[in-house]
Amino acid sequence: MQPPARRRALPALLPLLTCSLALALASEDVKKEITRSKNLEKSGISRNNDIVLDLKGIVFVIQSQSNSFHAKRAEQLKRSILKQAADLTQELPSVLLLHELSKQEGAWTILPLLPHFSVTYSRNSSWIFFCEEETRIQVPELLEVLRRYDPSKEWFLGKALHDEESTIIHHYAFSENPTVFKYPDFAAGWALSIPLVNKLTKRLKSEPLKSDFTIDLKHEVALYIWDKGDGPPLTPVPELCTDGEDTHCATAFHSFLPLCGSPVKKEDIFVAVKTCKKFHGDRIPIVKQTWAGQASRIEYYSDYAESSIPTVDLGIPNTDRGHCGKTFAILERFLNHSHDKIAWLVIVDDDTLISISRLRHLLSCYDSGDPVFLGERYGYGLGTGGYSYVTGGGGMVFSREAIRRLLASKCRCYSNDAPDDMVLGMCFSGLGISVTHSPLFHQVSITTIKY
After folding, report:
1. Name one GO biological process term (predicted).
2. Which partner from 18, 132, 291, 432 sits 20 to 30 angstroms from 173, CA to CA?
């Protein structure tokens, strides 16, 4: 048993011990906070948003398209940005539509336009902020986000994506560990600081872009900026969002199917399935069991007429690759032998999966009287005067007017086994008809991407 004096002293010591412990913990927290602040300061990130930035310092670039539907959506977003800026009683920022900036075929690949941004905006701007036409932007929140980053440093900001496994569309890059490389989700918006734009411009002048394929632009842009470690990696920004459900989000993206009125009638869409004799027994049954029943007008084009399917022999020998001769024969047949003047032609491979009901909704947004060439857009040699094309594996959609102009031009295959999608892209480019890109078409599965 403790003596009475010691029992009385113990309660008096407890507050002192508690206070000392609290001071020790607080001191440790202060040390951590100081260390963290120093690290943030070194990296160019401000925790107190004390970087001076107004909206005039941000150049908004909407990755728009010339097709009337997409141009209209981009204009709506532009008006929203300017209205929000006006509500903040700030000087209005520059809001640019990508398709209006240059007639260059490869303008949509962004990199060729960086010299223009450097020359035009480097003196009075701090950031180039890119977004898609369906990106929704909370301008005040975005302004606060960008104020965290020192605009005198090289920044590449965005919502980070990575591959769960190596994939062919990324040329199996980082095959040992694909998760290490981050690239931006364009739908959430992404930003380049002006010092980085200037650096990339110098590189473009000394090292012109290679004549190569453009397949997944967001991955290829990130690779170019990273430059095998000589450039900055993507800095993930949690406020750049696609779901938009979190209150902290400065951006959101609505990926739902666009609704532009009543769906196109099934009778106004003709579906052409490219096949060959060796796939009649295994692929065609799957097409019929899955989506073919949704189509009102469908034909199977082969190198062999088989009445049980039935298939149509176009008189074009089967080729192991390319299929250009077969595709142009389908186009000729559609234009000259479909007496009902059907508005739309869809050409798919015999291993393509398609939702006719969703396609009908999508096509309600387009005017079949315009020359529409729609699908997933790829590019070839765009840095050196090449062309865009719709990759065939994801399905190609043509308006009747587009086919009429194409066949009237006499642009044709240089051989039956030439790559049909690339020849079509080259022909339409020569006619001044732009490829219309839709993210609803996919050449390959997107399940390997981690969001």
Report:
1. gene expression
2. 132
227/285 same-domain check: no
5 vs 1: CA distance, rounded Å: 12
Rounded Cα distance between 137 and 188, Å, is 9
pLDDT in tens, 105-157: 899 999 999 999 999 999 999 999 999 999 999 999 999 999 999 999 999 99
Residue 410: domain span: 266-450
Residue 186: enclosing H or E segment and its boundaries?
A: none
Q: What angle do CA 262, 347, 426 make, to 5 degrees?
A: 110
Residue 302 and residue 175 share a domain: no
| Number of neighbours of residue 13 by Cβ within 10 angstroms | 9
> What does the pLDDT read at residue 293?
97
pLDDT score recorded for residue 35: 47
- Res 16 pLDDT > 50: no
Distance in angstroms between the alpha carbons of the first and the last residue of the chain = 65
What DSSP string describes 257-302? PP--SSPPPGGGEEEEEE--GGGTTTHHHHHHHHTGGG-SEEEEEE
Single out the residue of 237, 229, 348 nearest to residue 287, CA to CA.
Answer: 348
Quickly list DSSP for 351-386.
T----HHHHHHHHTTS-TTS--EEE-EEEESGGGT-
